[in-house]
Fold this sequence. Notes:
Blueprint: H1 4-14, E1 16-22, E2 28-33, H2 36-39, H3 42-57, E3 63-67, H4 72-84, E4 90-94, E5 107-108, E6 116-124, H5 128-139, E7 143-152, H6 157-163, E8 167-173
Parallel strand pairs: 3-4, 3-6, 6-7, 7-8
Antiparallel strand pairs: 1-2, 4-5
Amino acid sequence: MYDKEALIALVKDAALTFGEFTLASGKKASFYLDCRKVTLDARGARLIGAGMLALLRSDLPPLVGGMAIGADPITAAILTLAGVENLPLRGVMVRKESKQHGTGKYVEGPFAAGEEIAIVEDVVTTGGSSLLAIERCEAVGLRVKRVLAIVDRLEGGREAFAARGYDLQTLLTIRDFGIEPPQA
């Protein structure tokens, strides 16, 4: 069962740091969320998997996945809990760079063209990482239904997804930590 308050406390304790940071988007920030410290923790994986599965349950796609490395433990947590509940769900991993040996694929996993997928992400700022994952998934014939994230920094990602026709659902936003987004 998803426990939002427990997830907020865990993220605050393990993943939220204040200081001066440059994000993957290139933006400067006064705080950083290293969600791998939560997704790679047994308790965190359970909380995140349960939360994401709750978001997916009403319209369960056959696939979940996202950009390696950040999305990999999220995908695994969702798949593990789906397996416990005997739900028909599979995962994919999207590479930043194509594999230099074997088949050279960008998207790995048990999927077929035409299937629907929900993209998962740890932290959304501008949405760039997930938009790249979406492009790679669509290039192999997958149909992206929506994007799920642990935390939305409220810095334009939701709007970037909406502009391309994708809905963003998140377990948390930075407001859950008492942080207001920067004014544009």
